[in-house]
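User: Structure please.
Assistant: Input sequence and predicted structure:
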Amino acid sequence: MYKNILRLGKETLVYGTSTVIARLLNFCLVPFYTYYLATADYGTAATVFALIALLNVVFLFGMDQSYLRFASEAQNKKEVFQHCFYGLLIYGAVLGGLMFVCAKPLAEIVGIGAQNIYLIQLAVFILFLDMLNMIPFTKLRLQRRAWYFAGVRTASIVVNVLCNILFIAVYKMGVESIFWANIFASLASLLLLSPVIWQELKSGPFQFNFPLQKQMLLFAWPFVPAGLASLLVSVIDKPILVKLVGLSEVGIYQANFKIGVFMMLIVSMFDQAWRPFFLTHAKDPNAKETFARVLTLFTAFSSWVLLGLIFLMPTIIQSNLLGSFHLIAPQYWGGLHVIAWVLLGYFFYGLYINFMVGPVLTKRTRVLMWITLLGAATSIATNLLLVPHIGIRGAGMAVALSYFVMACALFAFTQKVYHLPYQYKKLALIGLTGAAIAYAVHNASQTLGFWPLLQFKTGLLCAYPLLMWLIIREPKNTKGN
């Protein structure tokens, strides 16, 4: 068991290297945007990229998950790759053409105005290129070529950051700079992945296999509504906020929402390694015990990161360590209270990713659609209920509540169809320890000054790993509880 878990940890770190570098480089653009773009312009970009995130699921049509599933078992892996890649190429060209023609009504629907139609048209190219990149990226994951994966991802983000700086600061192209930078980054990624693509496509003329294509589509399509519903949890707040509080508030909300990237880093790097891991080890004799232990280790580590970010990020943002420069420009500080809720939401999403083992291994992926629709409904209802009364804080709370509901629902389903012996006592102790520390810091913040409070927070965070080790360690000659 532990050998496999250590391998998962190693691969998580490798994927995490690219994810951390990519996300951090991307995060470097947040202060850049807040100092160079007006809040309304930033809100416009955030709204369009929320649309891109949703349509990316439609363009991809779940074929990355289908490739991962079928290529892991098929004798002729090239045939699976070719059906995925050629199918998406044709499908994406048709769908992209329709979106380009319908740019005006789309701009009006999302609330950015007819003057920003060109941003919707630029989004078409981003979606098409990202779709072509995804299958070769998935192949690298399945082959565990983590360093190649990491290198391409990192290079793409570097191109994105450099183009943003060049187009915004030098050429003064305004908000459209963000979209052109993404296009060039996707082109760079596709170029670097071309050897992987060519290796799979060069093996003679393509022969269409209808039964294989049908099976792959039947497995893939539930990921579309499931993916849309899942993304709605994190992006539906943008169009709702546009209607209720305006583009300027969306810009403030988005700048603070981006701080959640630090928690999302942990979840993303884990997710990249976790799915190939449990597919590969599903038939191991002690597979279920291994999967259960992974949840305990993930919860212990991610809860430490969660507390650290909640305690320290607002302080870091408002500090004068860099003089007059801040991670977020002062005009965006009205949304700092959103950060804790977004971080908590991504923590719950990490638990949700852990529970994916059930529907994937039992091939009951259709349930993901219903669970994520439940999460989306929770998000929409919470936003509509809270935003009119407490503003963007309500949108942050909606993110946390939605992911919590999704995690609970998926846990219940997984335990029904693929029961795992989770270490409930250890998980409960981790949760109680984290809650007690958060409560202690909250009380201390009412009485302590800035420096004593910072020392108190730092001391608790330093002690937390030791507390986690005492909770999660396995007694010798036992298998845990």
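Residues 2-422 form one domain.
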